[in-house]
UniProtKB/TrEMBL annotation:
Coiled-coil ranges from the UniProt annotation: none
Pfam family, one: Epimerase
Gene Ontology cellular component terms for the protein in this record: cytoplasm
UniProt domain NAD-dependent epimerase/dehydratase: residue ranges: 2-228
Gene3D superfamilies (UniProt xref): NAD(P)-binding Rossmann-like Domain
Entry protein name: NAD-dependent epimerase
GO molecular function terms listed in the Swiss-Prot or TrEMBL record: aldehyde dehydrogenase (NAD+) activity
Organism from which the protein derives: Flagellimonas aquimarina
C-alpha cells in the first residue's frame, strides 16, 4: 500500500493520477469533500473516466497536525509520499506554517518509524535551499543561510531537518526540492496565478525570476526515486531557470493575449512592501509583499538539476509543452 499525504494539492493529485493509472494500490489523506472533487477535475484533464480512477483510491480524512488521526491512515502502508504542506509567504501565518510544515512533518516521520515504513519521499521546495551566490547555480550542496528567506522557506527547511532526523533513526528517505511547479487546475493559487494574471492582459511584470518545473516531471522524479535504491539524498527539480518576463512571454501568446512589457521598478517595490507592512499593521490586511520577498526579486535565481539527471538518468520534458497544455485547459475553463 502506498500513502500520499496532501493528495488533493497540485503535486499530490497528479501523483495520485500517475500511481493509480499504473495500477498501484493507493491511500490518500484529505481535509474536506470539495478537495476530492477537485482531484476528480484534475483527473478529467487527462482521461474521460476520472471517476473510475478516483474510485481506486482509498480516501481517509486526516490532519497531519493531529497525530491521533494518522494511525488509521498508516495501517498496512509500506511507502509514503509526504506532499501535505501549508504554502504562505505572509509572516502573520508563521505559527500556522510551523504547525503544519514542521510539526506535521515531524508527526509523519514519527508514524513512519512506528509503522516500519520502507521508504519516505518528502516534497520540500527550492525555497528551503537558499540563494545563489556570485552568479553560480544553486545545487543541493548550497550552504544554507536564512537571509532574505520567506517564512515558508524557513519552515520547509526546518521540516527537512525532521526528515533527516528520521533517516538517522533508520527511516529510508529521499527529498525533492521542486522549483515553481507548473501544472493545470489551481488557477487561483501558486503557479496558476501566472495564467490568471496573463489572461487579464496586465502591462507590468515583476523583476527577477526563479526555477520552474512541470508537475509531471515532479511526480515522475518522485516515483523514480522511490523505486530506486537511492536514499538519504535530496534533489533539486527544475526544468528551466526563467525570468518572470520570459515566463509571461511563453504564456501570453498561448492565451491569445499580449505579454506584459513594463518591469516594475525596484523603487516601486521598496515603497510597496513598506506600504503593505503599514496596511497590515493598521488595517489587519494580509501581506502581499514582504521585505524578504522584495530582496529576492533583485536577481534571477538559477538552480541546477544535474544531480538527479546523473543519479537516476532522469530526463526533463520540455517546459513549453506543459505551458501549452495549461493554457488550453485554462481557456476551456472560461
Amino acid at each position: 500500500m502506498i500513502l500520499v499525504t496532501g493528495g488533493t494539492g497540485l503535486i499530490g493529485s497528479h501523483l495520485l493520477f500517475h500511481l493509480v493509472k499504473n495500477g498501484k494500490k493507493v491511500r490518500a489523506s484529505y481535509r474536506n469533500q470539495n478537495s476530492i472533487n477537485r482531484v476528480s477535475k484534475i483527473f478529467g484533464y487527462y482521461v474521460d473516466n476520472p471517476s473510475d480512477l478516483l474510485e481506486e483510491i482509498t480516501w481517509v480524512k486526516a490532519d497531519i497536525t493531529d497525530i491521533t488521526s494518522l494511525h488509521e491512515l498508516f495501517q498496512d502502508v509500506e511507502y509514503v509520499y509526504h506532499c501535505a504542506a501549508l504554502i504562505s509567504f505572509d509572516p502573520n501565518d508563521y505559527n500556522a506554517l510551523v504547525k503544519t510544515n514542521i510539526e506535521g512533518t515531524a508527526n509523519v516521520v514519527n508514524i513512519c518509524l512506528e509503522h516500519n515504513i520502507k521508504k519516505l519521499c518528502y516534497v520540500s521546495s527550492i525555497a528551503a535551499i537558499g540563494s545563489s551566490t556570485k552568479a553560480k547555480e544553486v545545487t543541493e550542496d548550497n550552504e544554507w543561510n536564512d537571509m532574505n528567506v520567506s517564512v515558508y522557506g524557513l519552515t520547509k527547511h526546518d521540516a527537512e531537518l525532521e526528515v533527516w532526523r528520521g533517516s538517522q533513526e533508520g527511516l529510508a528517505v529521499v527529498i525533492v526540492n521542486p522549483g515553481v511547479v507548473i501544472g493545470p487546475g489551481f488557477w487561483k493559487s501558486g503557479s496558476g496565478t501566472f495564467f490568471t494574471y496573463a489572461s487579464k492582459v496586465k502591462k507590468s511584470f515583476l523583476p527577477g525570476g526563479t526555477g520552474f518545473v512541470t508537475v509531471s516531471d515532479v511526480t515522475h522524479a518522485m516515483v523514480n526515486l522511490m523505486d530506486s535504491e537511492v536514499e538519504k539524498e535530496r534533489f533539486i527539480l527544475v526544468n528551466e531557470n526563467l525570468s518572470y518576463q520570459q515566463l509571461f512571454q511563453k504564456i501570453a501568446p498561448k492565451l491569445g493575449v499580449k505579454a506584459p512589457t513594463k518591469k516594475v521598478s525596484f523603487l516601486a517595490l521598496e515603497f510597496f512592501w513598506r506600504w503593505d507592512w503599514l496596511r497590515n499593521k493598521l488595517l489587519g490586511k494580509r501581506r502581499r509583499l514582504t521585505k524578504n520577498m522584495t530582496k529576492g526579486l533583485y536577481k534571477v535565481e538559477k538552480y541546477s538539476s544535474e544531480k538527479i539527471k546523473k543519479t537516476v538518468s532522469f530526463e526533463f520534458e520540455n517546459l513549453e509543452s506543459i505551458i501549452d497544455f495549461c493554457c488550453e485547459k485554462f481557456k476551456n475553463q472560461k
